[in-house]
Amino acid sequence: MTRCPPCRNRGTRWRLARLAVYLLICICLLATETPLAATQPWGLWHRVRRGDTVWGIANQYKVSVQSILGANQIRSARRLSIGKKLFIPGVVPSQQIDGTLHRIKRGDTLWDLARKHHVSVNSLMHVNNLESATKLQVNRTIFIPNSDATGFTAPLRIPLTVTSSYGYRWHPIHKKRKFHHGIDFRVRPGFRVYASKAGKVVRAGWYGGYGNVVVIEHAGGYTTWYGHLSSVRVKVGQKIRLGRVIGLSGNSGSSTGPHLHFEIRWKRKSVHPTHYIRIP
Question: How far apart, in Å, do the first and last CA atoms of the chain sit?
Answer without folding.
Answer: 77
